[in-house]
Automatic annotation (TrEMBL):
Upper lineage: Bacteria, Candidatus Woeseibacteriota
Cited InterPro entries: Glyco_trans_1, Glyco_trans_4-like_N
Protein name listed in UniProt: Glycosyl transferase family 1 domain-containing protein
Keyword 4Fe-4S among UniProt keywords: no
Residues of the Glycosyltransferase subfamily 4-like N-terminal domain: 16-176
UniProt keyword annotation of Nucleus present: no
Gene Ontology biological process terms from the UniProt entry: lipopolysaccharide biosynthetic process
Entry-linked Pfam families: Glyco_transf_4, Glycos_transf_1
Glycosyl transferase family domain residues: 183-334
Species, as recorded: Candidatus Woesebacteria bacterium GW2011_GWA1_39_21b
Alphabetized PANTHER family for the sequence: GLYCOSYLTRANSFERASE WBBK-RELATED
Length: 359
């Protein structure tokens, strides 16, 4: 099969969607011809074909999520995605990819839908954006298949557009890379160490993590990430926890060491997030997790952790204490193995083959 992924941010940042693209493409290329269109240069570890689209980007430009400009896709980033997609179209038409997976939303799925209709390709949307306006737009661009990352998201997608084929395929984790055996970070924090990983943005609600752990007597907090709230979270963390708090930034290759350093993992993002691969990475390292109490997190975590309402920081703190005191055995690791990337890729490969066979 000839398969193409479009993700402007690949090669520049390492978030969930970028991890998804790399892990899926790397494995699909064993039996297929895979191409990734991205802004960043090839980093040397890709076995698939990378096409870099040159553009000038102002990375300090404001994120206008929630504004009318963003909903109409006429904000800076949406227009940049439009330009990125337009620059990719000539190559797409020339290559006539059988399967195209656009990841950036906005104008991108609409344009790719038109192009694939013209030459007979199939467009597949992987619901990385999470339940909300962006996924509604993706669904109403009528993909040949919408891939929901949870059963809850699948049912939601069917209600939004019942005319679109919808399948459930979760995100995954590299269970060979993320395990409890190996080097740890050298961190000057008193144990037990609670770890949280994510972009330092309001929707990740890391301020609630800081406030809850500050109520605990002995636990330390290690935050790994970067973003607009870096200075604010550092101020809050050092103010409430003093030497029990540390915030660092790590390259993705170093992340297994961070997980192995911790005794417990927590992340309590807004409930619309579609999967959050870091939960699976933590569990693969056999860390129990304390996460937001919603149907999506419930399906990911099951019996490998505790779900909680993080806005009640007293209850949240008690849940963290309970998780630290519980003997979890190998439950987290066994739960993570359900989301092995190898299993996930096989599901995508079968889906792509079925779509092509229906042509």
């Amino acid at each position: 099969m000839k398969i193409a992924f479009l993700n402007m941010y690949s090669g520049v940042v390492n978030r969930g969607a970028e991890t998804f693209v790399h892990e899926i493409a790397q494995r699909l290329t064993k039996h297929n011809e895979v191409t990734l269109f991205q802004f960043g240069d090839k980093r040397g570890r890709e076995s698939y074909n990378v096409i870099s689209i040159p553009m000038k980007i102002n990375w300090s430009s404001k994120d206008m999520t929630g504004t009318i400009w963003r909903k109409l896709f006429i904000d800076y980033w949406s227009l940049l995605i439009l330009l990125f997609t337009l620059k990719s179209i000539r190559k797409i038409i020339k290559e006539k990819f059988e399967i195209i997976v656009p990841l950036n939303g906005g104008w991108q799925p609409a344009l790719i839908r038109i192009i694939t209709w013209i030459y007979g390709g199939k467009m597949v949307i992987s619901g990385q954006s999470g339940i909300g306006w962006d996924e509604r737009n993706n669904l109403w661009c009528f993909p040949d298949c919408f891939v929901a990352l949870s059963s809850y998201a699948k049912n939601w997608a069917k209600r939004v557009n019942p005319f679109v084929k919808t399948e459930y395929v979760p995100n995954g984790v590299d269970i060979q890379k993320f395990n409890q055996n190996g080097d740890k970070l050298k961190i000057d924090l008193k144990k037990p160490i609670i770890l949280t990983v994510g972009a330092l943005t309001p929707s990740k609600r890391i301020d609630l993590v800081v406030k809850a752990i500050s109520k605990m007597k002995d636990a330390s907090l290690l935050v790994v990430g970067d973003g607009e709230q870096r200075d604010e979270l550092t101020r809050i963390g050092e103010g409430l926890m003093k030497n029990r708090f540390q915030l660092i930034k790590l390259p993705f290759e170093q992340m297994p060491k961070a997980y192995r350093t911790a005794n417990l993992f927590t992340l309590v993002s807004e409930s619309y997030y579609s999967f959050e691969i870091v939960l699976a990475e933590a569990m693969a390292t056999n860390l129990p997790v304390v996460a937001n109490d919603d149907p999506i997190r419930g399906e990911i975590v099951e019996n490998a952790g505790i779900l909680v309402d993080p806005t009640d920081t007293d209850t949240y703190a008690k849940a963290l204490e309970k998780a630290l005191q519980t003997d979890w055995g190998d439950k987290p690791r066994k739960q993570a193995e359900k989301f092995s990337w190898d299993k996930v890729v096989k599901m995508y490969e079968n889906l792509f083959e079925d779509l092509i066979a229906q042509s």
